[in-house]
Amino acid sequence: MSTPETSRFVRLRVELVLEVGNADAVTKAAVRRVADDPEMPDAERAHAEEAVTEDTAEALAYLVDPFDLVSKVPGVELQQASWSSERTEYDPDSPDWDLDEDDVGGDEEDDGIG
Fold first, then answer.
1. The domain containing residue 29 runs over which residues?
2. Best label site of 32, 58, 59, 93, fewest CB within 10 Å?
């Protein structure tokens, strides 16, 4: 139930760690995405093609679209999105990679969604 005091906006935070098994395939897909974007100006296209060719993390940033994540969710409309990618060392057994670390002792209100 919504009350006037309740905001209809929700910030959804998602963090993913991906293992790239075929960097060449990722790069090629990103180059295709850049080349097929009809709204991208030529100067920006050249810069984007160079960036995705040089860095697999940058290529992934061109391929992962937040709109795709929520476009089929009924009753919501994406208002704003930002995302980035970076190379990282990953050890799933390390406590540094505890996905619930933000939940412990946080000041944020519990929304009851797990």
1. 23-97
2. 93
